[in-house]
Design a protein that fits this description.
InterPro entries: Beta_helix, PbH1, Pectin_lyas_fold, Pectin_lyase_fold/virulence. This protein is mostly beta strands. It has helices at 38-46, 182-185, and strands at residues 33-35, 53-56, 59-62, 65-67, 77-81, 85-88, 96-101, 104-109, 112-116, 118-123, 126-131, 134-138, 143-146, 153-155, 158-160, 173-175, 197-199, 202-204, 211-213, 221-223, 226-228, 241-243, 249-251, 254-256, 263-266, 277-279, 282-287, 290-295, 301-302, 307-311, 314-316. The strands form three sheets. The protein has an eleven-stranded parallel sheet, with helices on one face.
Amino acid sequence: MCGGSHPVGSGTDTDADAVGGGDAVPSCPSASVKVSDADELEDALDDAEPGDVIRVADGRYDDRFEIDRSGTDDEPIWLCGSSKAVIDGGNPQKGTVLALDRVEHWRLIGFTVENGQKGIMVDGSSDIVLGGLTVRRIGDEAIHLRDGSVDNLIVGSTISETGLRQAKFGEGIYVGSAESNWCDVSSCKPDRSDRNRLVGNTITRTKAEAIDIKEGTSGGVVEGNTFDGSDLVAATADSWVDVKGNDWTIVGNTGTTSPKDGFQTHEIVDGWGTRNRFSGNAAHVDGPGYGIAVTPALGNVVACDNTASGAVKGVSNITCTE
């Protein structure tokens, strides 16, 4: 084993500029394990130990993979490759290309994930960094954090071409679970996938929202992302970002083209969809709604430094706060 911890924002990053007050795509340490085909990759994941740095050579890895071993706080496990290292699930109609199941302390950096019903599924996991990835050609959602997945970071990644199986499930990033799925996912209790950070990602050509934040989640950050809603299907998605959780910070994002609004909040479950704060966002809507639609107002805050263009109804339906 070799390598070790390179905390996000520690100054070791070379693949992306720092965003989000220190969040950046971390650089991978020197490889301790090198793989060049699907069998070798499966073996490396099955045998991974804290501190391992798995380097995936450029090429195609035609299979679906699961991660079920954990690193430690001091020695995370790294899975690294360039965008030319492509993990291909084979069919956007079925399967999850890469699943993380109740693990901690992983750094997944740089490679491409494509052609599955789900792209990357993170269940019951924490301190996972998904950095500089390309996730594309996905049947439903590209990246999903659920079942109590907390304190994770999705940073500097490029997400596109989702909803190829069902448009209404084609989110770019999905955090938590809808109330209708709580009994399946989180023992009939709210899915508290809390304190997750979505920073500096580029999300385009999604059929559903670029980012969907579900009821039951709290305390996350959506910062410095770029959205293009040109492919949104208006019958099932009418904003880039939909916030149904509590106490989220949505700051410094830029979006273009939406069927209705740029950003929205909703109260799906009593007590949820409140105390979210929007600041410094630029909404180039070119649609009939608002830059930021807060429904109902509850304790949500829209700062006066948000801007909107091409939004027929204006910046927001509530008075801004200095």
